[in-house]
Design a protein that fits this description.
7-stranded mixed β-sheet; single chain; Immunoglobulin-like; 30 strands; Purple Acid Phosphatase, chain A, domain 2; binds fe (ii) ion; 11 helices; globular; alpha+beta
Length: 607
């Protein structure tokens, strides 16, 4: 079945929007978009775009220098004048699998007046003598936390970073550090990707415990050196555990990760995955609950609970970060904060992320309209570049619009099909004024791709199909006035119904979403009232579960029982951080939902 683009374009109220996604529209409409783009360009050039100060206090990344005697100088800039703080130091915990650093020393950063440029000194030799004598022999990695006071919020902000060094003949020297990773991605029965990022260009390779070393495929930039390393492991055996280590070297030294375990997929569908979303901070609680855009307390607790199940995959669909920033460096820093927090789990469990409305990287115009940056600078492009996801997504809705690839994608795992969508593509707060798309509106190109993707999966006899999308098709509390059904207005409902028809016709087992900061489990079928007037959609022939799991850390929303499908909601939990564990056993799919404390909140057989 093909999508009638004209039908869906009617759904999209903005003429500028329609012109942009059209391709089928009268030529005379296109100049409207051109004019809007021109205006945006002019606004950018003349500096009239509004810059929003980052929520983070950092203006720039801390820079570390280290002298031969072991004195590390850490320098940073703040976006507003700030005075003093505390620096804590420690080492990554190398005795347990989830290796977040533990700080065990600290000192004040004394400054006599508020300023933008700051500096702290750490006596590495002294610290190592007291707390980590091994470092004096061979060097290591020092983790540090800056605790700074943000007068804008009257709250402390924590900045967690680390650097690596060597000691030779009693002299200290900074060496390359692994900033991110190593992380696992795209694991199959016979292959896997290991990727990591170093703070300076290095040559990377993965060493397997069977003695095989595989070099990084990163481009031959910078004289064969690169900061981002992607290693594709091939010819692995199914359902097998391998010990692996990421190694990066340059003329100034070598850094080796700890040794971690990766597990190839089984050949029969007997596996589990964990799912959650909306782990962004609301800033409430401060400190670790507002860790550069992330709720670090809930994230760590959830990662610990998830790890206890030894899941084969972890999926996190949107609102990783607080986002809504105008600065690319701030957007990237928040995503890196997310990676830092989920990293210890990710060393051994492949993680797949999707975008939500908070993954917003914006231009703000003088009239207050906010819109996604263009194409290569867009939130979609930057998000894709911060992960290593499959690149089989759709083409942009129109040439020149943000890419889908790397944030919308699908993959097969052990005979099951997983599809990740983006419900918040190419955002504009006022599409009538500036080209873009409201939140929660799936556009025609993405829906066409979804239909083809799921049809192909069905033809290939996928045992189960799971679809992931940030915004729910059937909201139950917090976003009843919007989400994929557009709050129940005709155009939104039409797109939502088209989406759910594709889902049901493909025989999807469950749709996983978030956006609503709570947990709910809803079964939709052809008799469920799904419209404001209480009518059902006879096209929803196969009953399909919608699992809303937006309880990873953002402020909670209570239930709204006034929705037409209220009786189809089998479980609702409003007030605890939680995640889902999905276990596939051949034809059976079971769901368990746990709180961050490990309590079982819900249990169901999905298939
Ligand atoms: Fe959201």
């Amino acid at each position: 079945m093909t999508i009638d683009r004209r039908d869906l374009l009617k759904v999209i109220s903005s003429s500028a929007m329609a012109a942009a996604v059209g391709g089928v529209l009268p030529e005379e409409m296109l100049p409207q978009l051109t004019a809007v783009d021109q205006e945006r360009q002019n606004a950018g050039l003349s500096g009239s775009l509004v810059q929003r100060a980052p929520e983070r206090l950092l203006q720039s990344e801390p820079v570390v220098t280290l002298d031969a005697e072991g004195t590390a100088t850490i320098a940073w800039e703040t976006v507003i004048p700030a005075q003093g703080g505390t620096i804590y130091v420690g080492v990554p915990n190398d005795e347990i699998a989830l290796d977040w650093p533990i700080y065990n020393a600290g000192q004040s950063v004394t400054e006599e007046s508020a300023r933008l440029k700051h500096e702290a000194r750490v006596d590495l030799r002294g610290y190592a003598s007291r707390s980590a004598p091994r470092m004096l022999l061979e060097g290591g990695t020092l983790a540090y936390r800056l605790e700074l006071f943000d007068t804008r919020k009257s709250a402390a902000q924590f900045i967690d970073r680390h650097f690596s060094f060597q000691v030779e003949n009693g002299k200290f020297r900074k060496t390359p550090a692994i900033l991110e990773g190593p992380f696992l991605s795209q694991i199959q029965a016979d292959s896997a990707i290991v990727w990591w990022v170093t703070d300076t260009p290095t040559k990377g390779e993965v060493r397997l415990s069977n003695g095989v070393n595989i070099p990084s495929e990163s481009g031959p930039s910078e004289g064969g050196l690169a900061s981002r390393h992607i290693v594709r492991l091939r010819d692995l055996s199914a359902n097998t555990k391998y010990r692996y280590q990421a190694v990066s070297a340059a003329s100034d030294g070598e850094i080796r990760s700890r040794s971690y375990t990766l597990r190839t997929s089984p050949q029969e569908p007997a596996f589990s995955f964990v799912f959650t979303c909306d782990g962004r901070t609301g800033g409430l609680g401060g400190g670790d609950m507002a860790l550069e855009g992330i709720n670090g307390i809930s994230a760590r607790a959830l990662a610990i609970q998830m790890a206890r199940h030894s899941p084969h995959l972890m999926i996190f669909t949107g609102d990783l970060i607080n986002g809504y920033t105008t600065r690319e460096d701030d957007f990237r820093a928040q995503l890196r904060s997310w990676k830092r927090i989920y990293g210890p789990l990710w060393h051994e469990v492949p993680v797949y992320t999707g975008m939500g409305n908070h993954e917003s990287l914006l231009d703000i115009f003088p009239d207050g309209v906010q819109a996604d940056k263009q194409a290569g600078q867009s939130a979609e492009a930057v998000f894709a570049s911060e992960f290593v996801h499959p690149m089989n997504g759709p083409e942009p809705e129109h040439p020149g619009l943000p890419p889908y690839k790397g944030s919308v994608y699908s993959f097969d795992y052990t005979g099951c099909h997983f599809t990740q969508l983006n419900s918040d593509y190419w955002y504009s707060s006022r599409p009538q004024q500036r080209a873009g798309n409201p939140f929660g509106r799936l556009l025609p190109g993405q829906l066409e791709w979804l239909e083809k993707d799921l049809t192909a999966a069905r033809s290939a006899r996928a045992r189960h199909i799971f679809v992931f999308v940030h915004e729910p098709a059937f909201p139950n509390g917090g976003h009843v006035q919007d989400a994929l059904w557009g709050g129940g207005e005709a155009e939104g409902v039409k797109v939502r119904d088209r989406f759910w028809s594709i889902i049901t016709q493909a025989g999807t087992s469950a749709v996983f979403c978030g956006h609503e900061h709570n947990y709910s489990r809803t079964l939709i079928d052809s008799k469920t009232p799904v419209h404001r007037d209480g009518t059902a959609n006879a096209g929803f022939v196969k009953p399909v579960w919608q699992i809303t799991q937006g309880a990873a850390g953002a402020p909670f929303y209570p239930r709204d029982s006034a929705v037409p499908w209220a009786k189809a909601v089998k479980k609702f939990v409003a007030h605890t951080w939680s995640y889902c564990l999905v276990q596939v056993r051949g034809p059976l799919v079971s769901l368990e939902t746990y709180s961050y404390t490990g309590e079982l909140l819900d249990q169901a057989e999905l298939v």
